[in-house]
Each structure stands twice: as C-alpha cells, then as structure tokens.
Design a protein that fits this description.
The complex is a heterodimer.
Chain A (H helix, E strand, L loop, with lengths): L3 E6 L2 H12 L5 H4 L6 E4 L4 E6 L1 H9 L5 E5 H7 L4 E5 L5 E8 L12 E4 L2 H10 L5 E4 L6 H5 L4 E6 L3 H5 L2 E10 L1 E5 L1 H6 L1 H15 L1
Parallel strand pairs in A: 1-3, 1-4, 7-8, 7-9
Antiparallel strand pairs in A: 2-3, 4-11, 5-11, 6-9, 6-10
Chain B lengths: L16 H20 L3 E2 L5 E3 L17 E3 L5 E4 L4 H10 L8 E10 L11 E10 L4 H18 L3 E7 H9 L5 H12 L3 H9 L5 H8 L4 E2 L2 H9 L3 H17 L8 E4 L12 E7 L7 E5 L13 E7 H8 L10 E5 L5 H13 L4 E3 L5 H11 L3 E5 L2
Parallel strand pairs in B: 1-5, 7-9, 13-14, 13-15
Antiparallel strand pairs in B: 2-4, 3-4, 5-6, 6-12, 7-10, 8-9, 10-11, 11-12
Helix pairs in contact in B: 1-3, 1-10, 4-9, 5-6
Classes of the chains: A alpha/beta, B alpha/beta.
C-alpha cells in the first residue's frame, strides 16, 4: 500500500506538526535529519512527508499528489478552493487585522481608501462584507511600510504580537479573523483512503483537543 | 513572426498517437456500457446562446465561460456543459417523442479556469441523460450505468451517493437569512468543518443546527444511516434518508463492497439537483471524474415539467492512465511499390492485407532505401516490395 503523503508548510508549522506526530508515537527521525531532501518518510514508511511553501501545500493537495496537508488558515483564505478542511490543529495561532497609522481615522470620509496587503483576496472579501469599495495594492515584502511612505491608508496583514506595528507607529483598527493551522485533505483521497485517513485524524484530534 | 504562432492557449493541448489511442480506448469502453443500456448519441453545437447557461439553476459562473458574440451582437457561450443543451434540445425538437428518451453524448466542454493551476480548459466528456422518467427505477439504472462505466475503465474506484433534498430541507427549516445559508452550503460542500462551526455557533441552537453540524461527517457504509436517524427529526429529510437506504440496499447486490459510499454531506455546486446526487473517483487522480444525479428542475426553465437524470465522465484523465496499457499503433508491414506502375497494385495489396487483419501501411516514399530507413526507424518489422 502506498504511504499516505502529507504536505507540511515549511518552518514553524512543520515543527509543531512533527511535535504532534511524536506525541502520537510516530518516529520522525528522518525529518529531524532531513538535510536537503524534500520527501521524507515517517514511522518506517507509514507516512510520507513533503515540505513545501504554504501556498504550494494547497496546490499539492488540490491536485491529489499529496493526500493531506498542514497549512495556515491565512493561506486557505487567500488561495483555497476545493479540498476538505478536516481539523483545526490549534497551533500557529495569530490574527488577520486591519491597521493604519496611529491616530488616523480610517472610516472617516467618503473617499475610497487604499489598502496594501499580501492577501488581496482576504482584503477584498473583508471590505465587500462591509459594503466598502477599496483599492487594493499587492505588496510582497513588509506591508507596514506602505502607510508610512504614503502608498496606502491602511494595511491588512497577519498580526501575532503586534510589536512590528507598534515599532512603526501603527495600530490595529479591527480584527478580520482568527488564524491557526489546519489539516486539509484532497477530496478524492478522503473517499479512496477513508479508513486510513480517518484513523489518523481521530488520533490527531484527540491530541490537540 | 506572430507571437502566439507556435503555442496552444493555456489549458489546452494537442493529443498525439498513443494519447489518441488511449482516448479512443476509454471512449469505446464507456460507449459499450451506454450502448448496452440503449442510450443513443446526440451532438449539440459547441456554440450556444449565453442565456442557456445563465439561468438561476445552471450553477455555472459567468466567469468560467468563454464568451463571444454572434453577428447581431448577441452573447454566445462556448458550451461549458452538455446537459443544458440537451435539455434545450429535448424540450424543443423532441417534444413529440415518446418518453422517456435515453441520450448520450461524447463531446468536449470548455471552462475558463483561473490561470496557472494546471487545469484543462477543454474537457472531453461522455455522459448520459435519461429524460422523462422519475423514481427509483430510473435512479437505479442511471447509477448502475455510472458504476459500470467506472468499472469498464478503472480497477480501483469509488462512487459516493447522496441526496440533495436531505440538506436542502435541513437548510430550508433553518432560521437564518439567505446569505448565511449560501455560506453554509459552500462550507458543507468543501467539508470545511471549522468555518461551518463558526457560522453555526452564531445561530440560535436548535435541532436543525445540530443536524447541519453533523451531516458533513456522515459518509461511509451502512452505519451512516443509523447515525443520521439519531440526529435528524425533519420528516422530509428522513424520507430522503429512507430512500437512500433502499437504494443502497439494491446497489449492494452488485457486490462491490466499499466501492459504493453513502455521503449525506454530498452537496453539488449546481442548484439544479433535486434528488439523488453521485460522484465518482479513481485512484491516482485528485478530483472527481464522474458526477451526476437527478435534475428535474432544469426542465422548468423550458416550461416543460419532466423528470431527468444523468451523469458526465471526464475522459482526459482516464485516457492518461490508459495510455500505459493501450496497444501500439506501429504497423506490422510496410508495402513499397518498386516502380510507379506498381503503385495501384501496392495500394490494393495493402488494403487486402488490412482486410485479412494485418496492420499494413503503404509507403508513399518513392526511394527504396529511404522507405527501408523509415521502416527501421519506426520499428516496422516487415518490408514488402511489390513489382519486379
């Protein structure tokens, strides 16, 4: 039988997932000693772990080359289309927030506001929900810069501790939504390998609850 | 030079040799199943008026259609689906036919998918439409035809069966506004439990809320019915479950074990399903390759109230899998005419060989050494010369 292949978001989510696996008694030595390899076997080949960038985790799962994936809700909201979201893993917690320069009255006036963000889809949905017409500009790097140099009135970004905002004299106006790591599954895999996947999900659920 | 001279548009591709053989192979296998159930082929135009696909119940988003205009400026869509054209055809040109009619199609549909996702914008589809009948007999025959089609082309597949009324009645009885209901529909379809729970937490607790919370996890074998009956007390929803239960019992006589799955959370994009819904998966492909169900409602749009059910199978991926075991298309014999006066003789001889069952090909190269080299390069084992 082919091992179940799981795509992990590289970095922090990968670390927390490996911790979770080890708590469940799965041997993750190969992930700890991965070197430059990208496909790693867990617990003597019961699972196979693939390490990828967040948005790519979704791509691999959607196309069915990976059966499961661990990815942040932020990435799901921005890139997600068709897959099953099975479990809130409870780690990788943070928030999407709308922020602007301290003291700036964001909702004042009738002029359309400009928002800089790495997450244009999340931003558009948020303001559509408020019936507000905004101009969205996509920024790849530090979004906090945009309101400071006058490119945008505000930003929509991930806020964890708020220290970057504070250091740049920005403040949160409103939280958009909570974020945490999620376990996602390919639609076909869930049907074709139901029992194996359900067993793993049950174990993980019992551990994170 | 023109910029796009040498590429095909994104989401499309050329099919060559073995790829085509594989497509033919898959189509033939499925066509056999359709023929055995006495379905008859129809061909509809690739271009249709946009209005046909923009009805409330079509379930096809305007963004996903390729559009153009006719010479009066009327909006035309490149067929994104074959069921609606067939509904149009039946309700107009076939209105005096004896019902039910059994139709099948084998034609591509076109969807304008977001770019860089690797999805095909041109999807070869085969499907059936059983029009003019309702009820269990029709449902069982359509599902069985779907199962047999899957069996004909794949060893490892799953068909999941659900009922659109189950979820629709639960949602109707829910005390919430339409927008929230639409969100719930999307979350259930994507099995997005966490977002579903978030939205349900905000509503007043009730039996319906609990039922909606649980329905998405209700898929599997027979045990699903028992679990469902415990949490659902809506009469109409229970009727749907009862109906599925009897279908499942009948289908289990096919001895397919867990290849048939009950999925009470199965909700399709298309609003038009009004009874059973089903989806098919094969090992090695990450998306459904077959989908269908009962869609009596679509005929309401044509002022013609008749029952209809059917399904469509996507051929592209099945053909990709079939490529590895489809037969070689290299000829066994190359026939060469020595002189120009032997050409007709050689062509006739080639035809004779083919009639006798040998894969023979006439060589249209006029130089013998060139022809021999061609045969060698292609791997044609036998070289025959006609003439002295």
């Amino acid at each position: 039988m082919k091992p179940i292949r799981i795509a992990l978001t590289k970095g922090r989510l990968e670390k927390s997932t490996v911790e979770l696996f080890e708590k469940l008694g799965y041997n993750c030595d190969e992930i700890h000693n991965k070197g430059r390899r990208l496909i790693l076997s867990v617990d003597g080949g019961q699972f196979e772990v693939v390490l990828a960038k967040a948005a790519d985790v979704i791509t691999y799962v959607e196309h069915g080359v990976c059966d499961l994936g661990v990815v942040g809700k932020d990435t799901i909201l921005e890139n997600g289309t068709s897959f099953y979201e099975l479990l809130d893993l409870g780690f990788g917690k943070c928030k999407f927030a709308l922020a602007c320069k301290k003291g700036y009255d964001f909702y004042h006036g009738y002029g359309a506001k400009t928002i800089a963000t790495k997450y244009p889809k999340v931003t558009r949905n948020f303001f559509e929900g408020k019936n507000m017409d905004v101009r969205v500009i996509k920024i790849e790097g530090s979004v906090e810069l945009a309101p400071l140099v006058g490119l945008a009135d505000g930003i929509v970004d991930i806020v964890e501790t708020g220290s970057t905002l504070k250091a740049n004299d920005l403040e949160v106006i409103e939280y958009v939504t909570d974020i945490s790591a999620r376990l996602i599954a390919n639609t076909a895999s869930l049907k074709l390998r139901k029992y194996e996947i359900e067993e793993l999900v049950r174990k993980m659920e019992a551990e994170v609850k | 030079m023109k910029k796009n001279l040498k590429i095909t548009p994104e989401g499309t591709k050329d099919y060559l040799f073995k790829e085509c053989t594989a497509v033919d192979y898959v189509c033939k296998k499925i066509q056999n199943v359709f023929d055995n159930h006495q379905f008859h082929r129809v061909i509809t135009p690739a271009l249709e008026y946009y209005d046909l696909f923009s009805t409330d119940s079509s379930g096809i988003s305007p963004e996903s259609m390729f559009k153009t205009t006719d010479n009066n400026g009327r909006l035309i869509a490149v067929r994104p689906d074959s069921t609606l054209p067939i509904a149009r055809l039946v309700s107009t040109r076939m209105q005096n036919e004896v019902l039910p009619v059994r139709l099948y199609y084998n034609q591509a549909v076109y969807r304008n998918n977001p770019s860089l996702t690797g999805r095909s914008n041109e999807i070869m589809q085969m499907g059936i439409e059983l029009i003019g009948s309702r009820g269990k007999r029709a449902d069982l025959e359509v599902i069985t035809t779907a199962i047999q089609s899957m069996q004909a082309v794949s060893d490892d597949f799953r068909i999941e069966v659900g009922h659109s009324m189950l979820f629709n009645t639960l949602l109707d009885s829910l005390d919430a506004d339409e927008e929230i209901k639409e969100h719930i529909r999307i979350y259930i379809e994507n099995k997005n439990y966490s977002a579903l729970n978030d939205i349900l937490d905000k509503l007043n607790p009730s039996d319906t809320v609990t039922a909606i919370r649980t329905v998405p996890s209700l898929f599997g074998g027979e045990e699903v019915f028992e679990r469902a009956e415990k949490i659902i007390n809506n009469k109409k929803a229970l009727d749907a479950i009862e109906y599925l239960k009897s279908l499942y019992k009948d289908l289990s006589t096919l001895d397919l074990g867990d290849k048939i799955i009950i999925d009470l959370g199965l909700v399709q994009h298309n609003d038009y399903y009004s009874g059973i819904v089903f989806t098919g998966y094969v090992l090695g492909y990450g998306d459904a390759i077959l989908s269908g169900g009962r869609y009596d409602k679509i005929f309401d749009e044509f002022n013609c109230s008749i029952g209809a059910s059917g399904f469509a199978i996507n051929i592209n991926h099945l053909a990709e899998q079939a490529r590895y075991y489809s037969k070689s298309n290299i000829p066994e014999v190359l026939v060469f005419a020595k002189n120009d006066c032997d050409i007709m003789k050689a062509i006739k001889y080639t035809s004779k060989l083919v009639e006798q069952g040998t894969k023979a090909q006439f060589s249209d190269l006029s130089d013998e050494s060139e022809a021999r080299e061609f045969a060698e390069k292609l791997g044609i084992k036998k070289f025959e010369i006609i003439g002295d």
